[in-house]
Design a protein that fits this description.
Layout (H helix, E strand, L loop, with lengths): L5 E4 L9 E4 L9 E6 L2 E9 L8 E6 L9 H45 L3 H19 L1
Antiparallel strand pairs: 1-2, 3-4, 4-5
Length: 139
């Protein structure tokens, strides 16, 4: 698999030019054993190539192929497909960022609630304790 998540099959018995299959659910560098039916070259069957799982079925991929740049509709469909792939790849990142943001907001609310309830004497005592701790660390 290439770094741009494509599996390229070059077999003149199947097709005159290279066939490209989009494998965006897998990581670049993953290795597979593949099977392609010459009668249905738009579908690629993937099997695990790792020694401990050799031959385990991983899934099927649809042909990603090239589009004619003169065909505006085909180019538009391809752009839409690429945007969907991008959304699929970014979804876990966005979900994690939302969870982290929510947790940070909760932490800030909690901290403000705790610090807001402290009297001036308690705040001064905390500062004194922190300065004593810093001095102890410097020794």
């Amino acid at each position: 698999m290439t770094k741009n998540h494509l599996i390229v099959i070059e077999d003149e018995d199947v097709a005159p030019s290279a066939l490209r299959f989009l494998a965006h659910h897998f990581s670049p560098g993953d290795e597979f054993e593949t099977v392609i039916n010459p009668m249905v070259p738009n579908l690629l069957f993937l099997y695990d190539a790792r020694a401990n799982r050799r031959g385990a079925w991983c899934g099927t991929l649809k042909l990603w192929g090239n589009v004619n740049r003169a065909d505006d509709e085909a180019v538009g469909r391809r752009i839409g497909m690429a945007e969907q792939v991008k959304r699929d790849l970014l979804r876990p990142v966005l979900e994690q960022a939302a969870r982290m943001t929510e947790q940070r907001a909760d932490d800030l609310d909690h901290n403000n609630a705790v610090l807001g309830k402290m009297s001036r004497a308690e705040k001064q005592q905390r500062r004194d304790d922190e300065s004593i701790a810093r001095e102890a660390l410097e020794l």
